[in-house]
Every structure is written in C-alpha cells, then in structure tokens.
Design brief:
about 300 residues, alpha+beta, Beta-lactamase, 11 helices
C-alpha cells in the first residue's frame, strides 16, 4: 500500500476534482504527457453516458498496462455469446487448478461458481477451465468488439496482439504481455456494458463530437444481463465490495490485478447507478493490488462530490 504521504500526493483533492469536472484537460494533452508513470500513482477517468464527455485530472497520462481480471468481462462475453459455456453451469473451485501443465491459483477456494459469481469473485479457476476450447482468434474478435484495438478520441490504442500459436487462457485472464489496453479503453468497455452496447463517441470538453460515430456492440440480452449481474455482484459481495459498502451510488464494477515487475498494478472500472446508468469510470494504479490501492482510491474519487 502507499504511505499516507504518497496518498496525499497522489490525490487531486475535492477542489481540484470539482475543477477538473468542469474544466477538463484535453485527451491529446493527456496522451502526449511526457512524465513517466510514478510509482504509486493513480489515474482516474469518468464519462457521462448520455453525452460521451470524458473527465479526468488535467495533465494526467493515459496509461496502459496488463488488464488482469478486468479482461474477464470480454472473456465472459465471448464464452456466453458463442455458447461455449452455459452461464448457469458451475465449476468447482478448490483455490487452484492445473490447466495445460500450468498451475492456476485463486485468492480463495470459491467452491461451486457459475458465470455471474465467477465475474464477481474473479475466479481464475473458473475462467481457465471453461475457456479451454476457446481460440485466440475468437477472443481477439471480442476484444476488438469492445474497442481494445481502437483509439478513444485522440488517444491511440494500447498494445493489441497479433495471432500466435499458443493458448488463449493467458489472454482470458488478462495476463499476456501482448495485450495492454489503456485506461480510456477500459472505461469504454464499462460504458458499453452499462448501456448494453451503445455508447456515444467518447471525447473531452474541447473536442467537437458532432457527427462522430457511436461505439456499438451487438450481444444478446442474456449476455449483457450476465455481465451486468456479475459486475453488480462484485460490488455487493465480491472483489469490489469495499468500493460502495453502503450502496449509496449503486455501483457495478470489475477489478483487475496483474504483475508489474516484482510488484503489482491494478484497475477498477465500472458504472453507476446500476439500475439506470449515468456515469462510467476507470481507475488505474501503477503500484499495488486492486484491494490495496485501486478500490480504495476509486472510492475516494467517487465519493468526493455529488454526481449529477
């Protein structure tokens, strides 16, 4: 975890937060920021789901990295939509499993989990097990559907893989070094889940979005429903349960943690209120796990003001 002094330095504070909401820095400015990521730094983005306007602290970089378990949203979409898994079927998670000669670990033994609970608990064993028959090509197709290979506004896409002769499961778990979406791409992914596949062109305040194409993904109601249920359950009792413990904002979210050198980096992304979504958000932490850093920091930002 970051120290108190680091936390103070990394937080933009209530006044700066409010200022940034109404005087937004440009996406291009953020994209071209020259400073290297500082250890323990966090980035926070949010968007209005009706207008597509994006807000973030002025001058912050749009950083990319391993998505970790956030990628399980895309993986779930592919598995359920292509009927490679019955979302009601369960996998027995004992806390670890061996898939194609590699040991897969979970933070806990989750017991019998279906698709929704696997998203909520971020069960590695479930996803590695059910994705055995999924090809890389299929997973990449769905990653493209969710915009992991395309720019957001004037910000270029993060690293997107080329087909290779290897298993799909490292991509399913968001742990392949060849896939590095940036924070805005993860924000757009959550926005698509919130709006069931129809999101305005994401842009900052100074960009003219008139006539720009919307982001659209066509999936069945069953698939969208399971994705939303999993993200809602993650906040109620899963990996993001400390994000909105009193359910004031009615948040739906997905967390992700991945190796970063000999440490970790993490994300939490989602939308609210889950009954009638108006905002989506994404926070990335360059140092620390989602439970240690990303979720607590996102909670700070989300509860720093009253949302319209």
């Amino acid at each position: 975890m970051t120290s108190d002094s680091e936390s103070s330095n990394n937080s933009i504070g209530r006044r700066d937060f409010l200022k940034s909401m109404f005087g937004l820095g440009g996406l291009l400015e953020a994209s071209e920021a020259s400073a290297k990521p500082a250890p323990g730094r966090t980035i926070f983005f949010w968007t209005d789901l009706k207008t597509g306007q994006v807000g973030f602290p002025t001058g912050f970089m749009v950083e990319a990295g391993l998505p970790g378990s956030v990628m399980k949203i895309v993986s779930s979409a592919a598995l359920i939509e292509e009927r490679l898994v019955n979302p009601n079927d369960t996998v027995d998670c004992m806390g670890h499993s061996t898939i194609q000669g590699r040991k897969i670990n979970c933070l806990a033994a989750h017991g019998k989990v279906d698709a929704v609970h696997a998203i909520a608990q971020s069960c590695n064993v479930y996803f590695a097990t059910v994705s055995k028959q999924m090809s890389q090509a299929l997973l990449f197709e769905y990653a493209r559907k969710f915009g992991f290979d395309s720019a957001v506004g004037s910000v270029k896409s993060g690293l997107f893989p080329k087909p290779e002769k290897s298993s799909a499961w490292p991509y399913v778990l968001g742990l392949s070094p060849n896939l590095h979406p940036n924070g805005l791409q993860l924000l757009r992914m959550s926005a698509l889940v919130a709006n069931r596949g129809d999101v305005p062109y994401l842009h900052s305040a100074e960009e003219n979005a008139q006539g720009k194409p919307r982001s659209k993904v066509e999936l069945s109601d069953l698939t969208w429903g399971r994705l939303q249920q999993g993200m809602e359950l993650a906040v109620r009792e899963g990996t993001a349960k400390k994000l909105d413990p009193n359910h004031k904002l009615h948040i739906a979210a997905k967390t992700g943690t991945a190796p970063h050198g000999n440490k970790f980096q993490s994300w939490v992304t989602g939308y609210f209120p889950c009954e009638a979504p108006r905002h989506a958000f994404c926070l990335g932490a360059t140092s620390g796990t989602s439970s240690e850093v990303a979720v607590p920091k996102a909670k700070e930002f989300l509860f720093a003001t009253e949302w319209p």
